[in-house]
Structures are given as C-alpha cells and as structure tokens.
Design a protein that fits this description.
heterodimer, A: Dipeptide-binding Protein, domain 3, two-stranded antiparallel sheet, 36% helix, B: 335 residues, mainly alpha, MetI-like fold, 14 helices, BPD_transp_1_N (chain B)
Chain lengths: 216, 335
C-alpha cells in the first residue's frame, strides 16, 4: 500500500493514534495472512466473499491520493473475496453521506490540531458521543460501543508524566481491538529548503510555521 | 440597431444564467456549509449555525438568490467559500492569465487556419488539400487535453525545445502588474528575461488550444473560399488578369471571412470560461482552473461568477462578431 500510494515515502501505523504520539510506541502493526482471512470469512458464513459499496473522497491528502488507496484496497481485499464497488465522491458529498452513516465502508484522513493523543480518541473512538461512533452506525447499533474506552481515556489524561505513555498505549490497543477504524498509512513529510533559510521545521498543528522562516 | 438590442438584452441573459446556475448548484442537495467549516467542525452545531448566519445560508433560497443578484448588479459576486476572498478579486487575478492564453490561441488558430484554408482553396483536391483536411480532422477529433499532453511530451520532455507547465519560471520575479497580461507587463517593465520565458511557456498551451480553432477555421474557410472563387465577380477579375494571390486575398477572403468571424468569436468566448482542460494540463492559473477547483467544493459564489462570466463573454462575442461582419460586409451596416 505504501509503495503503491506513496512511492515508499510513508510508514505503516498500528492504531488510530499516529506514530510518534503518546501511546503509539511499541504497537504491533497487523501482518498479512490471506489464508487465515479466508478461513475467518468462511467461518463467518462468507466463504464466497461479499460485495461492499466503497465510497471515498476523490482528494489528495498530504500526498496520499485517495483514489489510489481505494484501488489498492480493492485489489488487496479482492484476494480474500471481498469485492469493493468503488464510488468516488466530491468532498462535500462524501462528508454529508458519512455523517449520515450512509457508508458501509470508507476511507478518510486526520491531521492533528495539537501534539496530543486525546483528539484521536475523541474523534475515532467508538464510544458514545464521538463522530465516528455515529458514522459507524452506533446510532442504530449501540452495541458496537467500546465500553472500556472512555474509562481508559480518562485514566490516561489523569496519568502522571511517567505513566502517560503506558496509559495511552492501553487506549490505543483498545481502539485496535474494535477493528472498526483501521489505519492504513502515515505519509512521510518531506520539507526541502535552501541553505540560506533558517527556522524551517515541521509542526504537528501548522505543518510549516511560516512566521518562523527567515533568511540566515 | 442589432448591436444595441444585443447589449440591452445582456442583463436579461445574465439573470437567466444566474437563475439556472443558482438552481443547479442548490439541486445537488449537499450542504454548502461543509465546504466552509470543514469535516470536523460540522460536528459542532454552534459552529454550523454561526457559519450559516455569517454566509447568509440560513435565509430562504429565494432571498439568497435575490441578494446575490442585487449584489452582482453592483459588481459584488460574494466571497469564495474556498479562498475566503472576494470572488471578484479572485477572478481579477485569474482572468488575465486566461485572456492571454485564449487570445494567443485564437490568434494562432485563426492565422494558421486561414493560411491553410487559402492554400487548400488555391489547390483544391491536391496533396496539400488532403494534408490540410487531415490536419483539420485531427484538430477536431483529438481532445484538447490529449493534444496538450502530446505537445508536452514531444516538445518539453523529448526534444526539450520548450518549457513545461506553468506560466512563468518559479525562479523569475514577475513584473509589476499593470494589465495582468505577463507579456504586456514584462514589455512595459522592459524585463526581457521574463518576457522571453513567458512567451516560450505560452506556445504549447496556445498551440494545444489553437489547434481546434485552426481546424474549424480551416474547414469552414476552405469551403466558403471555394464557393467564392466560383462566383462571377472572381471569374471576371481573373479574366482581367488579376493574380491568383490578389484574387484570394483581396476579393475572395473578405467575403469568405464573414461566417468564419462568428465561429472565431464564439470559440474565443467559449474558451474564456472553458479552457479548463488546457489550464489543468499546463498548470495555467486561469479562470478554468479556478472553476475546476471551485466545483468539487461547491463554492457557490465562485461557480456562479464563473458561469456569468462565460455568459458575458458569449454575449459580447456576438456583438463583436456582428460588428466585424458589418465591417467586412457593408450590406450588413444598415442593420
């Protein structure tokens, strides 16, 4: 996926909490096991696979072309019999359908507002009151809610400095266990500048703080 | 009189265009607030309500339309949802780039098309005529984006004769803006490095766009020239010893150009708001690219302004075509 979409300029990500953020260290990225996937599908009564409408925004986000991601997903899932019917949509149409929980499957992106993991939990966590709980159909099927997630988040936010990493790791593992939000890739950011400039740096919230850039 | 009538009808035409584009935009059923506040902020009802109030989207649709028309009549096309700037400012920046491209394409297409038509009509049914007709067929058949990509591949990549996409080399400083037309502004500032670069970068997109115009002009003009050359006054002039060149240029061409003028004017007007594909292939920062960026985000003010710009261009092209025809054909001046 990373080679196909980003030309290799990216990294896999294990949980909805991105690489480098509190709680992301040491998490295992799921491997590929086509045979086991087929077995699991057969055991669930889908031995011949099934079809899924896959609506996605036809945009390029941080270098990741969603059309390419969708095509790669179609190829990968096709190997186990899951047939995606790709339906590109403009961004506003996609958002409207997604917020109305009309999409059985989709892809999206997220860029942080600050350096902190709680924003990812409050957005992607499958618990009452979060956007993705509603978008995943939680309004009609409240049983998908992750009962322990809110408690884990509260403990992580209250944890002292030395324990915060472990606390957020527990949050991340809990989110991974939901198997509803599946991280695909984390694009590398490449910033090039002339030697005569200083102050060029990446910022998690601003990408590139222009006000700090000046000639040497 | 006809010209005056056309100009008086222009506001009615624009009102119709505004109504249709407004209606079609709203008919998508997608909430335009999404484009304004973004995906995450849509989860906050207070933000959504504030955005609707600020952008007038909380008013009834009919009121929104009437406000838009009233503002547009005063030259205010609203603020772009996407750029957050007045649409008029966006268009003022973009329009010169498109005008420069379309003017160059129209001029190139007209000159090449007329030259080919003259050669073709001079020696009809010969090898040259066949070649011209083949060129014309290719020009109307090959999509403009494919022509653009082919030209880029051949002349910019393979032969390296001309630069690639973009209006100006990023390492050059643009000249002060007087007209917005890079060639004119660079000449006024006597910045010949910029002028040369801008001129070289204009060749390929103008050729891609102009090929279609040249094809249409060549086809039409060839047919009308052959008709003209068979008329009695040409036969009479030929019998008095006029050269074929003078017959073609002085006697046949002015009459044959009358229908071609309408074609050229319409082509120009259509391209003002419609050179989307060429501007995309060549990364040309014009109105077409602006429309392409605005449409997927449902940027209503921008979409409507570009549509109305296209309408104005088409209406004015009719006026220009009529004036040109009256100049060429004195019989039309009495109208």
């Amino acid at each position: 996926m990373i080679e196909f979409v980003l030309g290799g300029a990216g990294k896999p990500q294990a949980s909805p909490i991105p690489n480098g953020f509190p709680g992301s260290a040491g998490l295992e990225v799921p491997g590929t096991d086509v045979a086991r996937a087929r077995q699991m599908l057969a055991a669930a009564g889908h031995g011949r696979g099934f079809d899924v409408d896959f609506t996605f925004p036809a945009i390029n986000s941080y270098g990741a072309d969603m059309s390419l991601v969708a095509q790669r997903l179609q190829q990968d899932l096709g190997r186990v019999g899951i047939r995606l019917r790709l339906q590109p949509a403009t961004f506003p149409v996609w958002v409207q359908q997604m917020r109305a929980a009309q999409l059985p499957m989709t892809i999206g992106y997220y860029a942080p507002d600050y350096f902190g993991s709680a924003q990812y939990v409050n957005f992607f966590g499958i618990m009452e009151g979060t956007p993705w709980f509603t978008r995943a159909g939680g309004g009609n099927l409240s049983s998908i809610a992750n009962a322990e997630l809110r408690g884990l988040l509260t403990r992580a936010l209250a944890a002292p400095e030395g324990e915060r990493e472990a606390a957020f790791q527990a949050v991340a593992r809990s989110m991974m266990g939901d198997r509803i939000i599946l991280p695909l890739l984390s694009p590398d950011l490449v910033i090039a500048h002339r030697p005569g400039l200083q102050g060029v740096r990446y910022s998690t919230c601003c990408n590139l703080p222009l006000a700090e850039i000046r000639p040497r | 009189m006809v010209l005056i009538q056309r100009l008086l009808l222009l506001p009615v035409l624009l009102l119709g265009i505004a109504a249709v584009s407004f209606g079609l935009s709203r008919a998508t059923g997608v909430d335009p607030v999404i484009a304004i506040v973004g995906e995450r902020a849509m989860e906050d009802p207070a933000v959504v309500a504030a955005a609707r109030a600020q952008w007038g989207l909380d008013r009834p649709v009919a009121v929104q339309f009437l406000r838009h028309v009233a503002n547009a009549a005063q030259g205010d096309f609203g603020t772009s949802f996407r750029t957050r700037r007045p649409v008029g400012t966006d268009l003022a920046e973009r329009l010169p780039a498109t005008l420069e491209l379309v003017l160059a394409a129209t001029l190139l297409g007209t000159l090449v098309g007329a030259a080919l038509a003259l050669l073709s009509a001079r020696w009809p049914h010969g090898l040259l005529d066949q070649a011209v007709r083949g060129f014309a067929s290719a020009g109307v058949s090959i999509p403009v984006f494919l022509a653009g990509l082919l030209f880029l591949w051949v002349f910019a990549s393979w032969l390296d004769w001309l630069p690639g996409p973009g209006r100006l080399d990023a390492r050059l400083t643009p000249p002060p803006v007087w007209t917005g037309l890079l060639l004119v502004d660079a000449a006024l500032a006597m910045d010949w490095a910029v002028w040369r670069d801008a001129a070289r970068r204009l060749v390929l997109p103008a050729a891609a766009l102009g090929w279609g115009i040249a094809a249409l002009v060549a086809r039409l003009l060839r047919a009308t020239l052959i008709e003209e050359l068979a008329r009695f006054h040409i036969v009479a002039a030929r019998s008095r010893g006029l050269s074929e060149g003078r017959l073609l240029l002085d006697h046949a061409l002015p009459n044959a150009m009358v229908p071609a003028l309408t074609l050229i004017s319409l082509s120009f007007a259509t391209l003002v708001a419609g050179a989307v594909l060429t501007e995309t292939v060549f990364a040309w920062p014009g109105v077409g690219a602006y429309a392409l960026e605005s449409a997927p985000t449902l940027d209503y003010p921008a979409i409507m302004a570009v549509t109305m710009l296209g309408g104005v261009a088409l209406a004015l092209s009719g006026v220009v075509a009529d004036a040109g025809q009256a100049w060429l054909d004195p019989r039309l001046r009495d109208r």
